[in-house]
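Might you be able to review the protein record set out just below?
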Amino acid sequence: MKFLHIADVHLGCTRYQLPESPRDFFEAWIDVLQRYGIDEKVDFVIMCGDFFHKRSVPPETMNYAVQGLTMMREAGIPVVTIEGNHDQKHTDNDFSWLRSLSSWGLVKLLRTGLGRRQNDLRTLG
């Protein structure tokens, strides 16, 4: 079994007030997916939190996310993820962007504490 482990992608991040920063983060993420995921023919990707830089995800950033995750789905490589502190929902409702990506079939989201013990892991989607 072969897998790719990535974390802290931070899609949408702007560094040093440079407008090209979000595109740079996207291109680096796509390069990793292609070079170390698809080219290496991994069985799955584990993405461990902070996929997005902010809880409020701009449309351009969501487009980047969908583009990369669609690339993985088309290659037949599932992406398993957890929510990092940047990804978690704002309020008491059950919605977050990673949860939407899961419901769209682009990621397998692992969650904890769904009405049982806090360390009980379950997969959404």
User: Anything to note?
Assistant: The chain has three helices and five strands. The two ends are 22 Å apart (CA to CA). The first strand starts at residue 3 and ends at 6.
